[in-house]
Amino acid sequence: MMDQFMKEAIKQAKKSLEEGGIPIGSVLVKNGEIIAVGHNKRVQEKNPILHGEMDCLNNAGRIGSYKDCIIYSTLMPCYMCGGTIVQFNIPKVIVGENKTFEGSKDFMESHGVIVENLMLPECIEMMETFIQERPDLWWEDIGEL
Predict the structure, then answer these.
(1) Alpha carbon 76 to chain centroid distance?
(2) Exposure of 55 by Cβ count < 10 A (0-12 exposed, 13-18 middle, 19+ buried)?
(3) Which one from 19, 33, 45, 53 is the annotated catalytic residue?
(4) Largest Cα–Cα distance in the chain?
(5) What does DSSP assign to residue 1?
(6) Strands 33-39 and 69-73, bridge-based pairing
(7) N or C end of the chain, less CB within 10 A?
(8) φ, ψ of residue 56 in degrees (nearest 5)
(9) 141: nearest Cα among 86, 87, 92, 75
(10) 45 is catalytic
């Protein structure tokens, strides 16, 4: 069962795709409320570090402590985003999938982050289609170009 927060993350991923970007979306939840959303804007803003989670956290602004937050992402966070999650002491990450990209699950868990992977067919299909259609952007995004 997909909750409203993951649905919003998927909506953000689709928004990025519509803008010509990489379909990865993220949502930051605090006390059961969405406080920020974001999506991968590397292509749109020509910014190599503006992954979905980074955009989401940037949009949240200064919120003080993140210790009662959950971050949602349609794709398993990379090491840059996972490192930021660890740095900010975000205790839990809920992920759409890690079939198309393994990401930093073990790293985050080794630092006490709870990682819940939903393996959602919609997220897997969205990334598989994107990778097939735009391998150039995908390999650039994960630093494998």
Answers:
(1) 7
(2) buried
(3) 53
(4) 40
(5) -
(6) unpaired
(7) N
(8) -60, -50
(9) 75
(10) no
Q: Which of 116, 112, 132 is nearest to 124 (CA)?
A: 132
**pLDDT tens, residue by residue, 111-131:** 999 999 999 999 999 999 999
Burial state string for 64-86 with b = 16 or more CB within 10 A and e = fewer than 16: eebeebbbbbbbbbbeebbebbb
Q: Provide the strand spans (E) within the chain.
A: 25-30, 33-39, 69-73, 92-95, 114-117
Determine contact, residues 37/27, Cβ cutoff 8 Å: yes
Q: Rounded to two decimals, what is the model's pTM?
A: 0.95
> How buried is residue 141: exposed, middle or buried, by Cβ count under 10 Å (0-12/13-18/19+)?
buried
pLDDT digits (tens, 9 = 90+) for 45-99: 999 999 999 999 999 999 999 999 999 999 999 999 999 999 999 999 999 999 9
**Which residue in the block uniquely carries the two structure tokens 């190599």?**
48
Answer for the pair 118, 9: CB distance below 8 angstroms, yes or no: no
Determine the Cα–Cα distance for residues 66 and 133; give it in Å rounded to an integer.
36
